[in-house]
Structures are given as C-alpha cells and as structure tokens.
Amino acid sequence: MALTGDIVIGTERLSGRAASFKAVDPATGDTLEPAFAFAGEAEVERACELAAEAFDAYRDTAPESRAAFLEAIAEEILALGDALVERACAESGLPRARIEGERGRTVGQLRLFAAVVRAGHWLDLRVDTALPDRKPLARSDLRQRHIPLGPVAVFGASNFPLAFSVAGGDTASALAAGCPVVVKGHPAHPGTGEMVGEAVRAAVARCGLPAGTFTLLLGANETGAALVRDPRIKAAGFTGSRGGGLALAALAAARPEPIPVYAEMSSINPVYLMPGALAARADALGKAFVGSLTMGAGQFCTNPGLVLALAGPELDAFVASATAALADYAPAAMLTPGIHGAYEAGRKALEGNGRVRRVAEGKVGEGVNRGRGALFVTEAADFLADASLAHEVFGASSLVVRCRDADEMVAVTRRLEGQLTVTLHLEPSDAALARRLMPVLEAKSGRILANGWPTGVEVSHAMVHGGPFPATSDGRSTSVGSLAIRRFLRPVCYQDLPAELLPAVLRDDALPGLPHMLDGAAKLPG
Amino acid sequence: MALTGDIVIGTERLSGRAASFKAVDPATGDTLEPAFAFAGEAEVERACELAAEAFDAYRDTAPESRAAFLEAIAEEILALGDALVERACAESGLPRARIEGERGRTVGQLRLFAAVVRAGHWLDLRVDTALPDRKPLARSDLRQRHIPLGPVAVFGASNFPLAFSVAGGDTASALAAGCPVVVKGHPAHPGTGEMVGEAVRAAVARCGLPAGTFTLLLGANETGAALVRDPRIKAAGFTGSRGGGLALAALAAARPEPIPVYAEMSSINPVYLMPGALAARADALGKAFVGSLTMGAGQFCTNPGLVLALAGPELDAFVASATAALADYAPAAMLTPGIHGAYEAGRKALEGNGRVRRVAEGKVGEGVNRGRGALFVTEAADFLADASLAHEVFGASSLVVRCRDADEMVAVTRRLEGQLTVTLHLEPSDAALARRLMPVLEAKSGRILANGWPTGVEVSHAMVHGGPFPATSDGRSTSVGSLAIRRFLRPVCYQDLPAELLPAVLRDDALPGLPHMLDGAAKLPG
Fold it and tell me: Where's the Aldehyde dehydrogenase domain (chains A, B) (predicted)?
C-alpha cells in the first residue's frame, strides 16, 4: 500500500491539511516520505463522536464476533507483509529480526485476547438466586456482569512501534473489552502507524462494525490533551515518559467527569546480585547483564537501570566482566533524535555527579543518534543521599549500587519508588536474604523474577506489566497479558429484571455455557 | 462497657486531650456524655506508622486465620449487646428495629468476607507453565496472585452508623484483602464508633494480630486530610457528600504517590414509571414510592430522588396517590443538625425555583431536626434547562419529571449524571421502551432494578453499590458485596521463582486446593 499521510475518520478522508510533518530514519537522519497531517480539535471531536456512536453497537457484539474481529486485525496486519517490517525498521532504527518478532507478538496478543473474549472470564458473571421466603426480608434475583467503560484513548509508545502502538496491547485489550478506540499515534513512526491503522480499519469493515470503532490520529500534545478531555472518552492508556503520563493523569483528574488513566511511565528495574550468585558466576552475570542492558539500544521499559549487590571482590568481578562486555557494544541508533538527546543529557548528568563514578563505556557510535553505553557505580549511602540517582535514564545506562551489608541493601530497597520489575540472581544459599527482601520487593513492583533478565515480557495470562507509582499511574492493573482487559470494564448489577431485558449472557439459558459464580460458588461450563 | 472518649493507638491510650466534643441526640437535641478527643497530626502519624508496621505480618496471615479474625470481629460486635443498639439509636435518631437490622447486616458482611477469604477467588491465581523448548524463545514459569495495597484509610458515613462505619463494608473488605485499616470515625456517632472500635481491637488481640492492624480516630477535616496525605496510606474508602469525596480525591491525586480513593458520593437514583406499569397500578406505585422515599428519613444513598414518567392522567394518579401517602408521613429526626439544615436548604431552593411546583408535603415534624417530606414536579424541558434540578437533596424530597414522550424520556436519561441505581417499573407491554432505555441506563448506573425500590442493598456476590461519576469516584468498583475486596488488591507476577520464595498459595502443592487459572484454563478445587 502507498502511504498517504491523510487523516481518516470514519468514512471521511481528509487530505492536504496545513500542519504536517515527515518521519525521520533515526539511523541515518534522513527524512522519509510522505508528509503526515496532524489532527486538530475538530478531528478529535469528530473521532470521539463516531466512537461514542459506535459504542453501543460494538459492545453488543457477541463474544464470537468480537473475537473474530480481533483475529481479523491480526490477519490484516500479517497481510501487510514485508512493507510493514521495512517501514517499521526505517522509522525506528530497530533491526529486522526485532521488528519481525514484535509483529509476531502483536499478532499473538490480538489472538490471545480473541481467546479471552471467547472464554468469558472477563465478564465476571455472578448470580445470587432469589430467596422469596427469606425472613425478615426476601432476597431479589441479582445478576452481575462487567461492561466496557466506553470509548478509550490510546497513546502509542515510541519504543514498540507495533506491540505498544496503534494495534498494540492497549488497543487490543480495550477492543476486547468492547470499547471503541481512538489512537493518538506516536509521531516517531507515522508510516508504520498508518499501515497498521489501515489494517484495523480493513478488519472493522470486513466484520461489518461501525467505522467509529477505531480511529487513528496523529497530532501535537494539544491533540492528545483534547482527546483526554473529550467527555465521550472514558479511559486512556499510555506508555511513555513520566512527564507525559503525569500530564495526562492530571488532565483526566481535572475533567468534570474524571476518568482512569493507565500510564506506564518510569522504572529502573533493580537487579539484585545476591552473594551466592555473585560467588558462583560473577563473570557470566556481567556478560548477560550487558546483553539485557543494551538490548534494543536500552530502550525497554524493563531495562535494568539499577544493580544492587554487596560490595566486595565478587561484585568487582561482575563489574569487570560487565566493563569488558560493554566495551564491545557498538550502539545502534536510538528511536528518535529527541530520545537520543534525553539519553545523552541523562548520561552527562550522571557523569557530572560527584557521588558516582563511571566505570565502563561502550563504543562510540558510528552514525547519528547513537547512545553510547555507560555503567556507573555508587555507594548505597550516596544513592540514598541523592534522589536523582534513582531517576530513569532511558537507554543503555545503568548504575551499580554497592551495599555494605544486607541491612543496607534492605534499606535501599525500602527507599525505591515503584517498579515494573525486580530481578533476583540467587543461589540456594541466598534464600535467607531473599526471603527478607521479598515483602519489600512485592510492595515495590509488579513482577519479581529470578535468575533471568527483566527485558522480554511474555504475553500470557499470569504476566503483570505494571507496578506501583511511578512505574504506572495505577498499580492495580497490567498493560500486558490477558488481565489487561479488566482495566476497561466495570460491574453492573441487574435486580429482578425480566428475562427479555437481561443481557444475553446473564439469561438462564446462557449461564451454563459460561464461567460464572452462583450464590458464591464458581461454576465452569461443560 | 463505659465509654471513655479516649484516643487509642496500638497499646497506648491517650486521655484528657484538649480539643474534645460530645455527641448530640438528634431526636432531642440533647448532648450525650462523654466528651471525645480529636486526634491531631501526631496521632495520625502514629496510627499510620503502626499500620505500616503491621502490614507485612497481617497480609501474611493464612486465609483461615484472616477469616477467623473477621468472624471474631462479628462476635465481638454482637457481644456488645443492647448497649450498642441503644447508643446507636441515641446518636443517630434511627429506630431500634433499623439499628438491629443494620447490626445484622454488619455482622453478616464480616462473615461474608470471611467466606470470601476462605474461597480464595480474590487471589486470582494464575499460572503459565514454563515452555523450555519453545522456539524462538523459551517461556518462563509465570505465576500471579493479587496482594493487598497496604494500609487503608476508611471514612465512616453518617447514615449507617454500623454498616458503613467503623467496622462497615469498607473496613471489612480492606481487612479481608489483607490491608490494615485506620478509620476516621464519623463525628455523628462517636460513642457507637468507640464501642465498635473496641470490638475490633478485642478481635485483633484475641487473634494475636499486630495492634496496628486497626486504629479508630476521631477528628476534624484536617485530621482526615492528614490521613489521606500520609505516605503509608495506600488507598481510601469514603461514603458521604460529593464535596467531601471530591476533596479527598483531590488530596489523593496531589500526593507525590497518588492513591486510589473509593468515594461513594452522590446519586438521585432515577425511578422510571413506564406507561404500562402506571396504567396498571399508579395508586400502589404512589404509596410504595413514598415508603421508599421516607425510609430512614430519606437518608439512604439509594433514595429515589427523581421520578421519570410520561405526562398524562396515569402519572397524575401516581402523584395523587403519593401526595396522599406523603401527607401521612410524620418525619423522624434526621441524623445530625447539619444534615437537617442542608436538607431544609435544598428543599427551600426547590421551592424557590420557578421551574418546579411543590405538589405534596409531609407532616410538620414534632421535635428538632425533622425534615418535612416534599414532592416536586417539573417538565422535562425545565429539568434539562436547569442542572441544579439534578442535584441530590439528601432527605425525603423527590422530583417528578414529566416527559412528553418516549424520546424526551430518553433525552433526559442521556443527560443524567452517573447513578448508584436506576429503577424501572414496568409491565410486559413496556418492553420496547425499556429495551431502548437499557443501554443508556447501563452507561449511567451501577445497578438496574425492576419493579422494586432502590432503598435496600443486598450484601451478596452479585451486588454492585457503585456507578459512574459522581455516584462514585471510581465506577470500576463496588463498596457493597463480595466484589468490594478487589478495590484493595493489585497483581504481582513471579517469574521462575524457586519454590521456597514463592508465596505459599502459588506453590505446586497448594494450587490444587485453590481456584486458579492454568495456562488460561480455569481450575477449581476438588
């Protein structure tokens, strides 16, 4: 397909808008054709109007139809073929294998949500049977289901142009819940966005759904603000910077009708190198750590930006191994000039901070937008004395915090902000210290992993990609995995409703075929 | 037990504080002994410190121990005997039968949550098995459970001195989730609060739990603000006015680490009298409506403050019937002089509003703090033209909105704010209009009931006492029923953790005895 740069809302195609921009290949600095139009307030208004009009018809789709729609999106994305991969590579600077893998993940999560919609647990059906003879008061027939919140605004992320973008996890889970979606695409990959947006629109048309079920817009910050302020939008999903997420949350809270914002914002993903693990394999840990640190030019939300360990020769060995490995790291281009600039500023701030020492560097990059890898070391007391050392530096930079003893390691942990992940490298001999840390780690993070690396997030049922503030704006949720659907739902109770007014899923004939709770007891179909 | 008016925090009893106040019997205006001390910032600080210290031990209690604790609270409340009933009647002006019923409900919901804790659905356990041979990447062993958020602040409501107060639904669901609770008791019933608080403390001691598991404080608005601002508090539950709820939500959002606030605030609970129902039983509906309107002096969150119907002789018959019934209503005392004053102000505002007509009044009250019942009528066009007509008047006042036709009824419905409940009175002949209304009603409310009255909220599994803003600050939740536990939980994922570090409920030996999801398939014990 040829990219147009047009704004498409419903069945209208708006060409030749004044404000327009072009994508940049971050690996070369070259400008990529065509020009893309920015949506203004009128387009936001129209997209939200169509989404609101589409809501009742879309949320009324039977589970099988909605699942088929999600699968159709997956098919349409695959049907874009290699052109999608090429454009995504060009716009992101990410290598082909990564983009192909990410496409697989994106398609996989759409299919996972299709299965989720069919299985029906998300409806959370509950029935309390009438007790007409109960004394002193009869009990009514009470039935509960979860319904979608309404149209959802999704803000695409820069760092996963497919999996966290136009048809990424937020969109898939909101559509699965029955919510129309208006995406504000990330300007770092407008062509990728247009292609995926067309794929979703093709699936909407193929499935006979209202055109307002899905709209993709590009725009400035004001466009995003108008979207979150629109009274027809009932929730927002966002992956990006802390500043951006907090701004959206503030806008949402200031609305006449506040709405939930699920912003995934900031995490330094502490990695604990326990004494037994360091003693057993400091060298291997150092190498593997650098592999995780530099993956995707360090541009993962789960990038290991902090390492905690007890000071000593084993930690020195780890640092030496990491130093050697990092010295071999030839940096890839970062996603955008802006992200590269922010990385360099963050790295320079650390280099200028008297409380830290730079112990290792990667190679100087060849070409533009290369973020040179960096490893810093500090003492726990210094880390505790300077809150700025706990701020995320988005890119291939990490900070090793040397703790004098276990008490200090626990004390540092208690002072950490909320995190997406924490990682423990440990041996059986480390169990006592690990057990001491566990309650603190649980209170601080959404995922705790052992003897692995935080980069790489499985899309499955048990995954949590979330965590206490500021990792996310709402630690009660996840943005990856099947539980993500719950963010866009709310419960409604139906009391003594005649069968013809009950939702189909709550009628006596439907309940045996769906998981539900009957007078407090769980019932499964079949 | 003799009331002391002391502040009790952990094992410390603080007597003789300067700032103190006494309760008032709203039925007589008499002051009731003793004087109660207000907690200041130091006491809030200390209570939160103890709650934070108690958190890990309390959340680690086995399900059976936590359930036994909830049951012990119920026993200790019942052991207070008639003294509790008498004090609650004196402080609230509510009749004995109501308070006895409310005690039964309070005890019942503690026992319901004990059963919920034992059944284990709230843990939402999920396991994705490791796939070491998967290509291109192996899958880790992933296990998920829900854990409690941390210490919770609960604000007691005035209108249910037992069921929505010190050991009411918010406290029961937070304790069930594993969260220590700091209650700010409502100053309308400090003696009732002290007695119930002592009962909870006795249960804490009996069950060998840390004293910081539960603290009751009384105080001014600043005390509540200090509580919500305290960094150790991780969520808040509130039932009360829209102003109060919004103030708490704003404080919570402005914290360095924002926290969820579950505020149940404002609802006028529209009642739809459908043409068929009006034709069949206008007279009976009028009588029953007044029964619901005046129950508990109109001081229910679910009080029917709005009636919608098509104009015509059947609606006139309903109004005539309601007028006659209301004329017989001899008002009971309202809960506090302040609530009575606000009711009178709201009623006077309606009487002075040229868009409405007062069509009925109750009897003049004998004694202080009596809110005279009132029924007003307006036209749909007037209702739409004056937003103030949709504001809650807390007490036995309601407004009938006459719609010219079904379109106008739908249009009014679309303009309503979020509600706790909506009620349909209907006959089979009304099905078409009801079906047209249903999607709008679902979008506007947490509970839809047919041919009943919204006052009276069952405490069960399928109940929703919640609804879109401003009925609550978070329409994704309920404050009544077993689903309320979910408000105080968040998911954590454990990846490849050695068995000795996994939470007990997620170990291989425990899973078969608990409901869980295994690779996406639901599994039930037994």
Answer: 19-329
